[in-house]
Amino acid sequence: MLFTLRLSYSGKAVHRVYATASQEAFLEGHAEAFTVLGGVPSVHIRYDNLKPVVKQVLFGRSRVESARWASFKSWYQFSAFYCAPGEASAYEKGGVEHEGGRFRRKHLVPPPQVELLAELNERLAAIDVAEDARHIHGRPTSIGFDFEAERERLRPLPADDYDCGIDLTPVVARDSRITVRQGYYSVPAKFTGQKVRVKLRANELWVFDGRQVVARHPRLTRRYTYHDFLDHHLEILLVKPGAFAGASALTQARAEGGFTRVHEAFWAAAKQKAGDREGTRMLIEVLLLHRQLPSEALATAMETSLRIGSVSTGLVAIEARKAMEGTDAELLTGPDGPSQGVLPGAGSAGGGGPAGEGARVISLHTRRLPPDPRTALPDRRSPNRHGDGSTNGTTGAGGAAWGGIKFSTLLPRRPAWRSGRRLEACPLRSDRGTAPEVRNHAASSGISGSSCRCRCTGRSGRRRWRGCPSWRGTCRQRF
Fold it and tell me: How far is CA 50 from CA 64, 69, 72, 225, 333, in A?
């Protein structure tokens, strides 16, 4: 739709193109025209009885206006003059009718070849500025000269702009899409099953998560059509990599140029190395890196990984960060280790090497963890040996202390009391009791030396013990 607003005295006109003839486009055209003119006409603006404005035509020039149009007029403080229906009153708006046809025939035939409507509107804005030097037939002065005199008659603009979009709250379907005006738009997969806030504008559709814009789509003009972003479906395709090749989002990404030849080559190399399923997953993991890293750096990283013959997601991430830092000299590295050649045309880079030597590309296959600086733990397989295999030299209580570590810390999985350990060898967990106290208690209670077990080992058996006056009931007599 071509929107045209023309001033009657000077003939100054503003032209904009919108994808639809909706009310949002009509309001945005007015807001853009008022901004270009620097003010609002103070008397009135003449209109036809178009549907975005008039809900019902009454007698004479009385009209039932739509609610948003009444709000828009109140915001900019101007009045509307509605032309009478029929051909008899066509002269009432002849100036804007003639201007629209003249501008379309002169500047839009044949239609200009542009990628986006925003680019076309930039061209129209430049044409409007150039036409200020044009002379209307029968006038001695130019449009720009007359507009300077008419500018003083305009009402000043309000402090804030009017929000011409419509707020909607659709529910995200299971295919990670929302339906707005019978068109389907993709949203990030994490919002599946939730309501999202949508701002429907004349040429765009914005999806919000709170105050943050999570998706921006061009507005669809045909029913039952869809617009997808491949990034919104990556979490789903990572679980089902077999659906990646036939995904409609991939087809659209190829058509729009987001999925480049470098991605295709990396995908083919990954499938050749790891198979179709795992190779596709590697590509999806690389596509997920686009959320944190620039596309140019990732493209350079994928080309580097293809040249060195090591297709790896981790290597692509490392090389992308190196590209962001400005490191452009590399040493070829293969899957089995670094090679001795340097990429053709690579300059010198820092890194501690000799002069003229390129920066090394360290692949994940050649990375090794540094040796563990900690000392080895003692061997726990035998309670009477140190970690180095030597025999324990502790005497007296029979191993109550073992190399500075409590006996309870180094007990084996099977308790030592089951193998017939004597009561004299029973260690206590606290300094309140000692081995002689346990022996005296055992002699007075009449229990044998082999029927005592310390709970300081941290293990509880099925059989109960009682009668031992040690700390927390460490030793108990058997029932």
Answer: 12, 12, 16, 27, 68
